[in-house]
Design goal:
The protein is α+β, with helices and mostly antiparallel strands and 63 residues long. Helices cover 22% and strands 30% of the residues. It holds the Pfam family DUF397.
Length: 63
């Protein structure tokens, strides 16, 4: 699966000092991609939109 055209955005919880950050691209049809902002040319994890919503919901419950 290619991620050409992905518009990456940093987590709203990321700090501006180059710390541990993730970036998410949710503009592609049928997939949400996640990558390490320190290695933008490295691998990305991909999820279905439903799986990503479940993950984010579970994280929010624990925050």
């Amino acid at each position: 699966m290619g991620l050409t055209g992905a518009r990456w955005r940093k987590s709203s919880r990321s700090s501006g000092n180059g710390g541990d950050c993730v970036e998410v691209a949710d503009n592609l049809p049928g997939v949400v991609a996640v990558r390490d902002s320190k290695n933008p040319s490295g691998p990305a994890l991909t999820f279905t939109p439903a799986a990503w919503r479940t993950f984010v919901g579970q994280v929010a419950e624990r925050a």
